[in-house]
From TrEMBL, chain A:
Source superkingdom: Bacteria
Residues spanning the signal sequence: none
InterPro entries: MlaB-like_STAS, MlaB_ABC_Transporter, STAS_dom, STAS_dom_sf
Originating species: Pseudomonas flexibilis
Stretches that traverse the bilayer: none
PROSITE patterns on file: STAS
Gene3D superfamilies per UniProt: STAS domain (3.30.750.24)
Name under which the protein is recorded: Anti-anti-sigma regulatory factor (Antagonist of anti-sigma factor)
Domain STAS, chain residue ranges per copy: 1-89
Automatic annotation (TrEMBL), chain B:
Modified residues (4-aspartylphosphate): 53
Domain Response regulatory per the UniProt entry, residue ranges: 4-120
PANTHER family xrefs: CHEMOTAXIS TWO-COMPONENT RESPONSE REGULATOR, STRESS RESPONSE REGULATOR PROTEIN 1
Classification of source organism: Bacteria, Pseudomonadati, Pseudomonadota, Gammaproteobacteria, Pseudomonadales
GO biological process: phosphorelay signal transduction system
SMART domains named in the record: REC
InterPro entries the record matches: Bact_response_regulator, CheY-like_superfamily, Sig_transdc_resp-reg_receiver
Lineage top rank: taxon: Bacteria
PROSITE patterns assigned to the protein according to its UniProt record, in alphabetical order: RESPONSE_REGULATORY (PS50110)
Name the record gives this protein: Chemotaxis protein CheY
Keywords per UniProt: Phosphoprotein
TrEMBL record, chain C:
UniProt GO BP: chemotaxis
One Gene Ontology molecular-function label: ATP binding
Domain CheW-like: 517-655
Disordered as annotated region, ranges: 244-277
GO cellular component labels: cytoplasm
UniProt domain Histidine kinase: residue ranges: 322-525
Protein name: Chemotaxis protein CheA
Originating species: Pseudomonas flexibilis
Length: 89, 121, 659
């Protein structure tokens, strides 16, 4: 394991949807455990549904200090609808 | 990004009517004439919603939905099933296959758009 | 105060009453008119009128008033019942159903069908000879007003597999009105390691202000309703939050105001938050609760069986395990039952308005005091309690509390006092309605009961027994017939309702000083702690809370059915005799001392089989009319035991009669 880099950012992209949810879970777990990022950058997310949102929330649940930044329009739409403004840093 | 809807119906006029309605509302539409044809269209392209008739030659709507649920990338695609009054047994089969959105033909185009808006944002 | 909760009770009640009304009319048509049936439809109309009056549902009140007047004539025989009249009455019921549908939508002032109403009223008045002409209704029909809805959506885990996602539905709802608040329950979402990515953990509560009807909202969620638990609760009509208008000569509508008189003012967000807090009491679907309790019941039964097995195989470990399970089950049971509990305030809160209006109608000055409104009891009981309590309160206002002049003449304060009180007492809930009115006149009641042929002239009755006469069908001492309770919807109905809830009713009264009606109800109807006894081959369960002590029956006590217990005489009965059970006459006998009301009585059985939790099941239809039985239960070994209803068992001295 590499020591955590204070500036490490994990870029997320593509469709965060139910069809890919299982795959995304594995990827997220692996990336976060290996790289210990400080922030998740959401600007590359093109689609977000409930399954995708659940994954992001479950990341926050595990690592409350990990900040989610730069929401894409697809993310903002869901965040606004569900009044989750505090969830994005 | 416009959402893509797969319309499956053996009646050309029905496909046309549905297609026009959906395109008019800004959706992209792919048409298929029966279940078998529709299954062939599940080739990796993004499909946000399927609108399918029940009674069709070759492969009916129920069999198509059951098959689609086995195809990677389409296992969770929402489906609106079109029925006619009095096809209660088909509806039961469809429900067992996991179909939750039903519309009884004939319907107003506005009703279809209303139903679509409940399944895709 | 949650007006909506009461309103829902009203609506539920109205539906039940209208259903009874309809099927009874159909019975009359098919099988002919009898006293019981005409009473049933009359009571339905009467109760509808009464409870609708509380909510100022003037359209219902004025209509049912006519209906009731006609039914009074049918009941007295003045008006014969025929096919044409039955049809008219059925159509009146249909119209009322539609009227209540409007009420359910919050459109209290909207007439579903003015033409039909006019036609039905004309037809009713034809029968009545137009004597009871109806005052024209004031007020304009309301348009649909915005209302706040609390919508809860709790998705089932497999929702995604049906091609569904809750987000578009929420978006759709938002499009129907103004989203005031939304709260997503993030606690339900597991950590990344534990999450099943294809399982839906979504649970959200939203507060939506919309003019859409309940039907429209339900329709919006139609596709996901099978894959979610959805709750849809209208909060109080927004107009009801406007500051109370100064009291005019007309009583101000509490529940719904015509839009002209009270414009919908947007509530301040602080108020909204406060209302949200009031809603922190979660409404649970009673059917789901029943399912939960059923499941617990099954568990209790299994555990009892498990215990039996463990005893026969005598393995210590099994026993320890069973004990643990027992503890757990007991906890589960208590929690499940608590879900059913609701504060009695749900019914008490109807009364300030009722007392005020009724007292005003009667020209009396009455102050209502409420105590113990927070006392909890089973929700089903609360719903069932509303009617009998209403009768008792009306009776107290009508016949108990005297007119002002009479009070002053008697040297009492001009203002009468009515007290509603509730409290818990040894496993029961006690509800009291007491007044400081004229009290019951035992001599007069006795005379009346004899006159009515309810008792013989020589019948010996103690004071309780005399008072109990007022609960007999066909008894009424009202000298002045008022339109409230004087129409003969009697106290007999009250007694029957209370007994149907396994409750008891007693009266304390001092002539000239007042009367207290005391209702005693079990806390719940589902599971009891019981004491199992055996007579011959038969097993019985006595509610544990009524068991005072157990002892061996002294051998010398067998002849007279009275013995001395530490110097106090104790009467006793033999279960074997009451139920004509075969038993070995040589077997020794034991005695269970039970408490019922203020009395103690002994019940003689062969032996004790210990304490148990009994899940109450309905009785076999053949046994349903046997007095003294409250239900049945399945024992750990699979046998059926009968649960004794001590109060009815010992209510009347019984004679054994051979069929």
């Amino acid at each position: 394991m590499t020591p955590s880099d204070p500036n490490a950012v994990l870029q997320l992209g593509g469709a965060f949807t139910i069809e890919r949810a299982a795959e995304l879970k594995g990827l997220l777990l692996q990336q976060i455990m290996e790289n210990r990022p400080e922030r998740l950058d959401l600007r590359g997310i093109t689609e977000l549904d409930t399954a995708g949102l659940q994954l992001l929330l479950s990341v926050k649940r595990c690592w409350p200090r990990l900040s989610l930044v730069e929401p894409s329009p697809a993310v903002s739409q869901v965040v606004d609808l569900l009044r989750l403004a505090d969830f994005i840093d | 990004m416009s959402k893509t809807i797969l319309v499956v119906d053996d009646s050309a006029s029905m496909r046309q009517m549905i297609g026009l309605t959906l395109k008019g509302a800004g959706y992209s539409v792919i048409e298929a004439t029966d279940g078998k044809d529709a299954l062939g269209k599940l080739d990796g392209r993004k499909i946000n919603l399927i609108v399918s008739d029940v009674n069709m030659p070759n492969m009916d709507g129920i069999a198509f939905v059951q098959a689609a649920k086995q195809v990677a990338g389409y296992r969770f695609t929402p489906v609106i099933m079109l029925t006619t009054e009095g096809s209660e047994d088909k509806k039961q089969q469809g429900k067992a296959a996991g179909v939750r959105a039903w519309m009884v033909k004939p319907f107003q185009p506005a009703m279809l758009l209303d139903a679509v808006s409940k399944l895709v944002i | 105060m949650d007006i909506q909760a009461v309103r829902n009770v009203l609506l539920e009640e109205a539906r039940e009453l209208l259903a009874t009304y309809e099927h009874t009319l159909l019975d009359i048509e098919a099988q002919g008119l009898d006293g019981e049936r005409i009473n049933a439809i009359f009571r339905a109309a009467h109760t509808l009128k009464g409870s609708s009056g509380m909510f100022n549902l003037q359209r219902v009140v004025s209509f049912t008033h006519l209906l009731e007047s006609l039914l009074v004539r049918v009941r007295s025989g003045e008006q014969p019942m025929g096919g044409a009249l039955i049809s008219l009455l059925l159509r009146c019921g249909d119209y009322l159903s539609r009227l209540f549908d409007k009420v359910a939508e919050g459109l209290d002032d909207e007439d579903p069908d003015p033409a039909q109403r006019a036609e039905l009223i004309a037809a009713l008045e034809d029968y009545l000879g137009s004597v009871q002409a109806l005052k024209p209704l004031a007020g304009v029909p309301a348009g649909s007003e915005a209302q706040d809805w609390l919508i809860g959506i709790h998705c089932h885990p497999e929702l995604f597999h049906h091609g569904l996602d809750p987000l578009p539905f929420i978006q759709y709802l938002v499009g129907m009105g103004e989203l005031l608040e939304l709260a997503l329950d993030r606690e339900l979402i597991p950590s990344l390691e534990d999450i099943d990515p294809e399982t839906c953990y979504f649970k959200v509560d939203l507060l939506l202000r919309t003019t859409a009807s309940r039907e429209a909202l339900t329709q919006a969620l139609e596709f996901i309703q099978e894959d979610c638990d959805i709750s849809l609760e209208p909060l109080e009509a927004i107009v009801a939050e406007a500051p109370e208008a100064p009291e005019a000569s007309e009583p101000a509508p509490v529940e719904s105001a015509a839009p002209a008189s009270a414009p919908a003012a947007p509530a301040a967000s602080g108020e909204r938050a406060a209302r949200r807090d009031e809603q922190s009491m979660i409404k649970v679907d009673a059917r789901k609760l029943d399912q939960l309790i059923d499941a617990v019941g099954e568990l209790v039964t299994r555990s009892a069986r498990c215990r039996t097995l463990s005893l026969t195989s005598a393995r210590e470990t099994v026993e320890t395990f069973v004990e643990e399970v027992d503890g757990f089950i007991e906890q589960l049971r208590d929690r499940a039952l608590k879900l059913r509990m609701a504060p009695i305030n749900e019914v008490f809160q109807r009364f300030p308005r009722v007392v005020r209006d009724v007292a005003r109608d009667l020209g009396k000055d009455v102050e209502l005091q409420i105590r113990g409104a927070e006392t909890e009891l089973d929700k089903t009981l609360i719903d069932k309690l509303a009617d009998p309590l209403m009768h008792i309160v009306r009776n107290a206002l009508d016949h108990g509390i005297e007119p002002v002049e009479a009070r002053q003449a008697a040297g009492k304060p001009a203002r009468g006092r009515l007290l509603l009180n509730a409290y818990h007492e040894s496993g029961s809930v006690v509800i009291e309605v007491s007044d400081d009115g004229r009290g019951l006149n035992a001599a007069k009641i006795r005379a009346r009961a004899i006159e009515r042929g309810l008792i013989g002239a020589e019948t010996l009755l103690d004071e309780q027994g005399v008072f109990a006469m007022i609960f007999e069908a066909g008894f009424s001492t009202a000298e002045q017939v008022t339109d409230l309770s004087g129409r003969g919807v009697g106290m007999d109905v009250v007694r029957r309702s209370i007994e149907a809830m396994r409750g008891t009713l007693e009266i304390q009264s001092t002539l000239g000083q007042g009367t207290c009606f005391r209702i005693r109800l079990p806390l719940t109807l589902s599971i009891i702690d019981g004491f199992q006894v055996v007579v011959g081959e038969a097993h019985f369960v006595i509610p544990l809370e009524q068991v005072v002590e157990c002892l061996e029956l002294p051998a010398n006590a067998s002849a007279r059915q009275v013995m001395s217990l530490r110097g106090t005489p104790l009467s006793y009965v033999r279960l074997a005799e009451l139920f004509e059970l075969p038993r070995d006459p040589a077997a020794r006998e034991c005695l269970v001392v039970v408490q019922h009301g203020q009395q103690r009585t002994g019940i003689v059985v062969d032996r004790f089989a210990g304490e148990l939790q009994a899940v109450i099941k309905p009785l076999n239809p053949m046994l349903r009319n046997v007095p003294g039985l409250g239900g049945s239960t399945i024992l750990g070994d699979g046998r059926v035991a009968l649960i004794l209803d001590i109060n009815s068992l010992l209510a009347t001295p019984r004679r054994v009669e051979h069929a």
